[in-house]
Specification:
CATH architecture of one domain: Orthogonal Bundle
CATH class of one domain: Mainly Alpha
Number of helices: 9
Structural class: alpha+beta
Oligomer: single chain
Helix content: 40-55%
Radius of gyration: 31 Å
Amino acid sequence: MVFSSKDRILIEHVHRSKGYGARKLVKEFPEKGWKVCSLGHLLKKLKDTGTTNRQAGSGRPRTARTPENVDVVGDMICSQENAPGTHRTVRQILREAGILKSSVVRIIHSDLQLKCFKKKRAQELTAANRLNRVQHSQLLLDKFSEHEVGFIFFTDEKLFTVALPMNLQNDRVYAPVATKKRHISASRLLRMRPTFSKSVSE
């Protein structure tokens, strides 16, 4: 049975001040749901060590979530500076670093305190594209009245791109847990594609 820190303090105080044993503590605090055997082990620990707190260094030592593996996963999970898309996926990390998938996930969320954002596909606009859009938009506004603008629609031929598909499911951005998505640079969250990618029309 696992005792909370408050329960440990209460048990230690009552035992020292009133000399209550395991059975007496269970009878005195029935709402706690304590077990006699668990209290017996805790009181024996108090007698042997003088405290009910867990000793530093006790328990099974970590073999996967070591500081070295945390540093390795931290370097691989995040993209390098000014080089978006250079991060590794969880599967790539476990293959290259030889760490179990569950340990990699725990390191990312518990040790590195990172959370995952999914990228979105967006149109890449060059400086010339932006200038042309502004100029043509101004021409349309000059040509049509304000109430007619909402009825303007554009048609275009169907384009079938022949570029390699991108799987955005595996293309993620990791950031500290306290980070809001709106605070992340758009260049990191958007997967850009050129205006005139290789395609065929019909």
